[in-house]
Design goal:
heterodimer, A: 155 residues, Jelly Rolls, 2 domains, 43% strand, B: 531 residues, mainly beta, Methanol Dehydrogenase, Chain A, 5-stranded antiparallel sheet, 5-stranded mixed sheet, 5% helix, 32% strand
């Protein structure tokens, strides 16, 4: 292994050198495939025709939501599985859920504010929200903060 | 002595790269020993304007063969290997064909039509049928040779145990056949196979992975090294993915650089954690001994719900250093620094998507799920860009969504710039086998689909993008920026060609001018831009 510690970097250098200069017709020594792609200032004016199959919509300021499943529950109730999504470093306004909910954080880190009390949560955390409770979310990470809610609503 | 070793190593690498790395042919699975899936040479296929124009089919095998093949080819699960005017490819019917690349005529086949086909009695996996191992071109004893893995009923218990074959590329005559490598027995237990694994020739050896026909019961994965000169097994090289009795099949192909890089399948089908457990890992091995240099195992045994790591790793000689990059079946893509110290845990450069798991892997507390979702295809590496079918920012909430997307990831960028572009590939069913492995040449990406189309798209540095879309595929573009996400390019589809020959699960071979594609419909097609 000691020998490899000395030799392997040299071999690697050989490989890199050959890959860079060894190919007769290899002319890509500019930015293509290396540099980042420039983003024009008016990118929002040139959106593609792409449409998500399972799109979120804006539920409240800073809060995206979609319902992925719903069904009649026990007598007089309705069950819905809903995803909430808060973008990196964003926070939501306060909302009141349409029912009681069991929630699981599916990705990211953030803060949940339930009736004024704060709880730090991250991927894997579960928590419950009682019906009628005001709730707000804050994404404290650089990653999407996604929460899956199992909502139980009165019909 | 050491100086001599360094010089020898450089010479070996130079030869390997001259044969594979810089070849205008397509002499190996993923083109070269680094498994980049990249053609570095210029030609009509690298010109966005040319490939956007009309295309024509040169020939379709076996229609072009010049004789009637008996049996007719079934599905092609191996990709076309192209070297000095000949296409080499094995078929699920158990025959290996050498096809004239310019005419489509059959040059030779192995075995001969009146000889027993290379098949096995177990057929539970698509790779179980005939020859699924893409070939590798090399030289043995001064003559050109083609090496591939296949079942053979003349050895072992007569059921079709796996072995390696080395044939003279000029006439198909045997140079050697290895001893039994993957054992198939009628004991209700033993059902190893070579399957999809394609040989890697490096260090005067041929390395081949062994997996199985399914998880009932799961087999112990191994990487076997045979001597290139005579096909004998080198027992000085030894790597088993797990302790007995099970797990860690090597479904993909080894990549080679300053070591041997492999990915391993799952181990947990109930029962205790095997010791050792190198399943569900990306590993770097010593090419002489098989000893582990480093291992990255992001999914622990308790979370193993069958997320085999099967995609062949690509070794990227990126501007930020050499990286081993691969997507695991659960949808996460990992980039590991190749130079990680020994013996040690691999050091992660990045994960996509990123999260708390980057530093030490997943835990039961993080709520992530790691199941049998089929992110199986190796990606393509083009300079600092890794192009791959992977889960995206929505992998924890919509894991299946990534099957229809191709991502380009900036391997050396900051986390916020990881996504270079995202493309919804057209002409797919959107399911787990939507795409074959992508191939790339100078920023132009070629990929086959399950609807039998060859799709060509251009990196926005070589062809203007169709527009911008959100970095999270589930967020509508018009809501993207206001909610803290980024807009990323949606590249242009330069061409969508319906080959009318069945689904494509293999890589397009890019050879200067023509593209060679093999299909589930039993065809090999040569097509090229122009009328």
């Amino acid at each position: 292994m000691d020998r490899c510690r000395h030799i392997c970097p040299v071999i690697l250098l050989c490989v890199v050198s050959l890959a860079t200069i060894g190919c007769k017709a290899y002319t890509e020594r500019g930015a293509k495939g290396i540099g980042l792609l420039p983003k024009p200032a008016d990118a929002e004016q040139h959106l593609s025709t792409y449409r998500p199959r399972d799109p979120y919509s804006q539920l409240a300021a800073g809060l995206l939501a979609r319902t992925i499943y719903q069904s009649a529950g026990p007598t007089g109730t309705r069950i819905a599985v809903t995803d909430y999504l808060i973008g990196p470093k964003r926070h939501t306004s306060s909302i009141t859920l349409p029912g009681a909910a069991i929630c699981e954080v599916k990705s990211g880190d953030g803060v949940v504010r339930l009736a004024g009390a704060e709880q730090k949560v991250n991927s894997g955390t579960t928590f419950a929200v009682a019906q009628g409770t005001a709730v707000a979310f804050e994404n404290t990470s650089e990653f999407p903060f996604a929460i899956r809610l199992h909502l139980i609503q009165k019909e | 002595m050491e100086r001599h070793l360094i010089a020898t190593s450089c010479l070996v690498m130079a030869v390997a790269l001259s044969v594979a790395g810089c070849s205008s042919d397509w002499p190996a699975f993923r083109h070269n020993i680094l498994r980049t899936g990249a053609q570095l040479n210029n030609g009509p296929l690298t010109d966005a304007t040319t490939v956007s124009g009309p295309w024509s089919t040169g020939w379709t095998f076996p229609d072009s063969a010049g004789i009637v093949l008996n049996p007719v080819p079934g599905a092609f699960r191996a990709g076309p290997i192209v070297y000095q005017g000949t296409v080499y490819i094995g078929n699920s019917n158990g025959y290996f064909y050498a096809i004239d690349a310019s005419t489509g005529h059959l040059k030779w086949q192995y075995p001969q039509p009146n000889q027993t086909a290379l098949t096995q009695t177990f057929t539970s996996n698509p790779s179980s049928a005939g020859i699924a191992s893409s070939a590798f071109i090399t030289r043995i004893g001064g003559k050109g040779a083609v090496v591939f893995g296949a079942p053979d009923r003349s050895i072992g218990a007569g059921l079709g145990s796996g072995r390696l074959f080395a044939l003279d590329i000029s006439n198909g005559h045997e140079i050697w056949k290895s001893p039994e490598i993957a054992a198939l027995r009628n004991d209700g237990v033993t059902h190893e196979q070579i399957g999809y694994s394609s040989p890697l020739v490096l260090n005067d050896h041929v390395y081949i992975g062994v997996a199985d026909h399914g998880d009932n019961p799961i087999q112990r994965g191994t990487l076997v090294a045979v001597r290139l000169a005579d096909g004998s097994i080198d027992n000085g090289f030894r790597f088993f993915s797990t302790g007995l009795p099970r797990g860690g099949g090597i479904w993909g192909s080894a990549a080679g650089l300053d070591g041997i890089y492999v990915t391993t399948g799952n181990a947990n089908i109930g029962g205790p954690n095997p010791t050792p457990n190198h399943a569900l890992s990306l590993l770097k091995l010593d090419p002489n001994t098989g000893n582990i240099v480093w291992q990255w195992q992001p999914v622990p045994y308790d979370l193993d719900a069958d997320p085999d790591w099967t995609a062949t790793p690509a070794l990227m000689l990126a501007s930020c250093g050499a990286l081993a990059v691969s997507v695991q079946k659960d949808g996460w893509t990992w980039a590991i620094n190749t130079g990680s110290g020994a013996p040690a845990v691999g050091t992660v450069r990045w994960a996509f998507p990123s999260g708390s798991w980057v530093t030490s892997g997943f835990t039961a507390a993080d709520g992530t799920i790691h199941g049998d979702t089929r992110y199986l295809r190796p990606g393509a590496a083009w300079n600092d860009v890794y192009i791959v079918q992977t889960g995206g920012l929505n992998v924890t909430t919509n894991v299946m969504d990534g099957f229809r997307h191709l991502y380009a990831l900036n391997a050396c960028a900051n986390e916020s710039d990881r996504i270079r572009w995202i493309k919804d590939i057209p002409s797919t069913n959107g399911g787990e086998y939507s795409l074959g492995p992508p191939s790339v040449t100078h920023g132009i990406v070629y990929v086959g689909t399950d609807q039998g189309h060859l799709i060509i798209i251009g990196d926005p540095s070589v062809a203007a993008a169709a527009g911008w879309r959100c970095s999270d595929p589930d967020v509508p573009s018009n809501l993207c920026v206001a909610n803290g996400f980024s807009l990323v390019p949606d590249p242009t589809v330069l061409k969508d060609i319906d080959l009318h020959a069945g689904p494509i699960t293999t890589e397009p071979a890019l050879v200067g001018d023509p593209v060679f594609v093999s299909t589930e419909g039993g065809k090999v097609i040569m097509l090229r831009p122009g009328r």
